[in-house]
User: Which sequence fits this backbone?
């Protein structure tokens, strides 16, 4: 019997792509991984449409309408959903705007910035509307696993993914989750 | 605002009066605020300058305590006690009524700077609420007509001293007295017993009595005294914990108000036994109304030779007592946080061990006991340990003062021998139709009818004394929510499991309470509660999840009937979260909304 590969999708919501860079840092271990999994929608494959997947890995928090739709789609299509990195888990750096009114944030960039001509807050329907605050993803959908780090190191990602694929409980060694 | 030079003079005088002692910092800041209504940066710098400590140190204290303000504040500061028992008595309606009548928003100061209105944690007037504080002085039995008069007094800028006395009347409702409250005690009797029989004999009586700490933890008092007595150190201290911050308890208030001599005498006996010359009463800020009376009692004890130098004429027996006033921080009831606060710092619990008996106040050996413990010790010194131990159960000797409040006909103080059943207490206080009891306050346990035959003692249901009754007309989750908010407010913020955990727990309880919770949220509450229990630094965080964890087991239906049938619900209203952006951009296209169906479709 041929063992079918697990389908894995990843995406970056309101994050800096740092977690995906860490994922690439797996380096040659990516080959081992490719033996076991097949990437579906992901910045690594450039597949735009999300199929039915076994595992979804989310970087970044929820800052706008598009983030919400993407996350909901991932939740609907992925059996197991993972929050990867500080932004997905707690909102991270983008959530620093939560202490200000959205109005002040937008005005700071679009009406009070220097060198602006015809300054106004953009209102094109193509641009995803912002939520008043940035939220961690578990406040929007159920999340099955949380992988901490800003970003999690490649080693932490490797430990996590290996254990998950082997069906073992996740235990990250201390060296992979301390940051000082 | 005061002129700069006048401000500095005022502060200089206050600091001088406290002998420029940094350990008096909290007391100094309280007095500075009394004169200036709030603590400006200028005032903070001046205090720091006069004491010769850094402004940051002063600021860390000024910002820690709820009753100290570092933002402009009204000359009249009115804070409604917001315990669940006050809510049962309709305090919310009164709060809104007052804020409307005064023209001031809740949790803010009126534009003219005259008055601020807000809420505070339980003020210990649960048997005579709804209650509030005005500039720290307790107001009891509030009603709309009374508030009308208060509005008049505030607007006319009438000084507090001229407000009607009955507004401030605090009654001791003692409904059942036993050996502690019932028997007459002749002032000085315990001191004479110590002088006659010697400290060793008193220690023996304490051991025989089996007395356990009445603050709630139940540590053997004799063991504590002996440990401190044997600890190396020239200077030792006795501290009476009268912080009584646990919502729903007010027995220490009654003891301090009506039995202060007994408490002071217990402290003095302890001082003699451990070899201390100085004692402190750490009185919660909410009880400032009794400070003058307590000071007068101390003075008359000095004059009677029961306190101060050469007590009862014995030159080897000197002991005095000083009163420190807290400033609205529940965590300062924890003994090591209390000591930090006594030292003039912000009240963050220390790492224990070492325990106060070896490293307490100013790192010297210190006994910290609850008010009731000292009162019992004074009686034991006179009547003997066997007499005390003849009451109670095998592991819990003597009696316990319970503070009854909530849905019962006769709220107040009940003294019972340890071992009394919950059912008996409910009968005696006239609780009709009780649904559940919050025992020992929010940090204690919530029990349902199934457990009413259990006994109040350390072997079974331990308690510091709070006993809040909820009858069947109440929604248990209202209480749980009130407690969850209480812990968020009171967490000192030092450790993450408590600082973050209490907020997450509050959010989850709010989510369920407002009908947005799912089974996944209940699971999350249990997991979070477990983390808080094992991960928190002090008892506050370790017990903060108790009300939720207990009620999930004891009253599952109060959660379940509110749950959504879906497996998961977002933690916030996503469509409402777009309102600001819609308004800023003027967008009304379909992508400017997140409607309910889209959300539901994607949930597993
Ligand atoms: C958060 C917290 C608050 C506390 N509050 C009080 C209090 O208000 N009064 C009190 O006597 N003990 C309080 N305690 C218990 C004290 O730490 C300490 O155990 C007690 O004062 C010792 O006195 P006892 O042995 O006579 O009970 C509190 C403990 C914690 C963790
Ligand atoms: S458990 Fe809470 S109150 Fe106690 S030290 Fe930690 S943060 Fe402070
Ligand atoms: S994007 Fe990975 S931690 Fe922020």
Assistant:
């Amino acid at each position: 019997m041929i063992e079918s590969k697990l389908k894995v999708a990843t995406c970056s919501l309101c994050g800096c792509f740092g977690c995906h860079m860490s994922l690439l840092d797996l380096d040659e271990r990516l080959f081992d991984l490719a033996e076991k999994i097949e990437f579906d929608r992901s910045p690594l494959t450039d597949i735009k449409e999300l199929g039915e997947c076994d595992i979804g890995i989310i970087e970044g928090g929820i800052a706008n309408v598009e983030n919400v739709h993407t996350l909901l789609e991932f939740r609907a299509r992925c059996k197991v959903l993972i929050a990867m990195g500080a932004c997905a888990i707690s909102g991270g750096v983008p959530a620093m705007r939560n202490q200000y009114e959205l109005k002040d944030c937008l005005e700071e960039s679009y009406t009070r910035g220097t060198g602006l001509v015809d300054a106004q807050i953009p209102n094109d329907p193509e641009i995803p509307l912002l939520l008043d605050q940035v939220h961690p993803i578990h406040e929007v959908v159920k999340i099955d696993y949380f992988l901490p780090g800003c970003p999690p190191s490649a080693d932490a990602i490797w430990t996590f993914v290996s254990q998950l694929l082997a069906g073992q409980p996740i235990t990250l060694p201390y060296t992979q989750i301390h940051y000082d | 605002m005061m002129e700069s030079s006048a401000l500095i003079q005022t502060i200089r005088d206050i600091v001088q009066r406290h002998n420029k002692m940094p350990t008096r910092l909290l007391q100094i800041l309280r007095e500075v605020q009394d004169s200036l209504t709030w603590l400006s940066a200028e005032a903070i710098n001046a205090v720091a300058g006069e004491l010769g400590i850094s402004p940051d140190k002063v600021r860390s204290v000024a910002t820690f305590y709820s009753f100290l303000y570092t933002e402009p504040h009204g000359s009249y500061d009115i804070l409604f006690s917001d315990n669940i028992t006050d809510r049962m008595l309709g305090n919310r309606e009164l709060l809104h009524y007052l804020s409307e009548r005064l023209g001031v928003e809740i949790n803010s100061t009126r534009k003219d700077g005259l008055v601020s209105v807000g809420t505070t944690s339980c003020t210990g007037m649960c048997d005579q609420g709804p209650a509030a504080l005005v500039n720290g002085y307790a107001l009891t039995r509030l009603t709309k007509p009374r508030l009308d008069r208060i509005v008049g007094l505030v607007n006319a800028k009438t000084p507090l001293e001229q407000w009607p006395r009955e507004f401030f009347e605090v009654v001791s409702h003692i409904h059942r007295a036993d050996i502690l409250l019932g028997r007459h005690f002749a002032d000085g009797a315990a001191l004479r017993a110590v002088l006659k029989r010697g400290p060793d004999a008193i220690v023996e009586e304490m051991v025989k009595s089996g007395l356990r700490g009445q603050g709630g933890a139940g540590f053997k008092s004799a063991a504590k005294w002996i440990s401190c007595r044997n600890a190396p150190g020239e200077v030792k201290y006795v501290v009476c914990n009268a912080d009584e911050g646990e919502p729903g308890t007010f027995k220490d208030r009654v003891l301090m108000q009506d039995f202060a001599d007994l408490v002071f005498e217990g402290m003095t006996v302890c001082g003699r036994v451990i070899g201390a010359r100085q004692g402190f009463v750490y009185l919660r800020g909410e009880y400032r109304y009794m400070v003058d009376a307590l000071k007068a009692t101390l003075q008359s004890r000095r004059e009677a030779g029961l306190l101060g130098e050469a007590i009862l004429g014995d030159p080897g027996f000197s002991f005095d007592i000083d009163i420190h006033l807290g400033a609205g921080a529940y965590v300062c009831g924890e003994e090591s946080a209390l000591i930090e606060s006594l030292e003039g710092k912000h009240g963050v619990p220390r790492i224990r061990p070492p325990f106060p008996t070896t490293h307490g106040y100013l790192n010297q050996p210190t006994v910290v006991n609850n008010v009731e413990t000292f009162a019992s010790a004074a009686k034991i010194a006179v009547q003997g340990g066997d007499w005390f131990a003849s009451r109670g159960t095998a592991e819990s000797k003597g009696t316990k003062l319970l503070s009854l409040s909530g849905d019962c006909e006769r709220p107040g103080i009940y003294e019972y021998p340890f071992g009394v059943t919950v059912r008996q207490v409910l009968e005696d206080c006239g609780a009709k139709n009780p649904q559940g009891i919050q025992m020992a306050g929010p940090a204690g346990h919530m029990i349902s009818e199934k457990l009413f035959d259990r006994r109040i003692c350390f072997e079974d249901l331990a308690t510091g004394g709070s006993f809040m009754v909820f009858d069947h007309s109440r929604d248990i989750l209202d209480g749980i929510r009130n407690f969850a908010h209480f812990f968020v407010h009171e967490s000192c913020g030092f450790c993450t499991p408590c600082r973050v955990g209490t907020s997450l727990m509050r959010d989850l309880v709010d989510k369920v309470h407002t009908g947005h919770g799912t089974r996944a949220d209940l699971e999350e509450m249990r997991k979070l509660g477990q983390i808080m229990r094992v991960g928190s630094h002090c008892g506050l965080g370790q017990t903060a999840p108790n009300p939720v964890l207990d009620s999930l087991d004891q009253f599952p239906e109060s959660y379940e009937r509110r749950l959504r049938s879906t497996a998961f619900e977002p933690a916030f209203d996503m469509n409402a979260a777009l309102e600001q952006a819609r308004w800023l951009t003027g967008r009304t296209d379909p992508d400017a909304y997140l409607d309910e169906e889209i959300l539901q479709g994607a949930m597993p």
User: Anything to note?
Assistant: The domain at 6-96+130-176 of chain A is CATH 3.40.50.700 (Rossmann fold). Chain A touches chain B through 26 residues (CB under 8 Å). DSSP finds six helices and seven strands in chain A. The beta strands of chain A are 6-12, 37-39, 53-59, 62-64, 78-84, 130-135, 145-147.
